[in-house]
Specification:
Blueprint (H helix, E strand, L loop, with lengths): L1 H21 L4 E6 L7 H16 L4 E6 L10 H7 L4 E5 H5 L17 H8 L2 H14 L1 E16 L15 E4 L3 H9 L3 E4 L5 H7 L4 E5 H6 L8 E17 H6 L2 H28 L1 H6 L3 E3 L3 H14 L10 H7 L2
Parallel strand pairs: 1-2, 1-3, 5-6, 5-7, 8-9
Antiparallel strand pairs: 3-8, 4-7, 4-8
The protein binds 3-deoxy-alpha-D-manno-oct-2-ulopyranosonic acid.
Length: 329
Amino acid sequence: RRTVLGLAAASTLMALTAPTAFAQNKTLLRISSPAVPDDWHGKMWDVFKESLNKSAPNAYDVQINLNGSLFKQGTEPAAMARGNLELASISAFDIAKLVPEFSIFTAGYVIRDPKHQQKVFNGPIGDELFKMASEKMDVTLLATAYLGTRQLNLRDTRKVNTPADLKGVKLRMPGSKEWLFLGDSLGATATPLAFGEVYMGLKTGTIDGQDNPLPTVRAAKFYEVTQQIVLTNHLVDSLFIAVSNKTWNSLSAAEQKTLKAAAQAAAKFNNENRIKEEAQILDFFKKQGLKVNKPNEEAFRKAVQAAYDKSEMAQNWPKGLIERINATK
Ligand code: KDO
């Protein structure tokens, strides 16, 4: 009896592993992202896959896993280090956990706009910081995707003009100290929650609000369970398309070039579409009945910058880096 069961288990295992076993000659590229399929940084992986299949037919087995279905949000770098994941889009917050210098990009009101973001990361500053990420995290950052400009999105309407108006507001942030610092610096009470739980949190009222770029508020349907958008513009957010160095180093120079080009095509698709959508998305929320208000952005900027200036985090920022970022045009 034990043998029969053992055989059954073995055949199930074979069936489960068969796809990769038969795709033996292809390089396996597993991708994990918490993105919802309808958001641009979810769709960009299709562009990545198409681009790779076009320039290197039958060379790669690209497996896209969205909604955090393969790895939980924030656990991707560890999965890549263990060899269980080849590619992911990771945030400055994910990187800052292992490369404290990177926390400069988790600070509000540092990157000015998507153009500034591309200039910073595609120039010498990007080269220096990406090198640190490669050395300390064993990942290669292939392209910078614009996740969008983060805004506040509240469950109930209220007057919000300055940070003082957010006193006592339970603001959901992703779960790391750098994210919580950002939420608190806006004047709210930051509380950690995974992206996949935000919709329910808003619906049931365990949180009073969340912050995300507006295309994400639409794609994840947060507008169904919130009543207000406050245009704080507090973080021009980035996602970096990252590949594990184990995979990267196993490729020839020509293959590396193809992979990087596919990542850049994906980022470009995301960036162009997101920028276009952000320019016209307010109408959508107004039609959904949400109140949209422009607060005193200068008051938010001052409060946030003062909080970071005094922070322990800022001690890790390389000398002169903030000035170099500001001077990048
Ligand atoms: C979020 O959890 O609010 C966040 O916007 C953080 C980002 O770094 C990124 O993980 C993003 O979620 C997901 O890709 C879902 O859009």
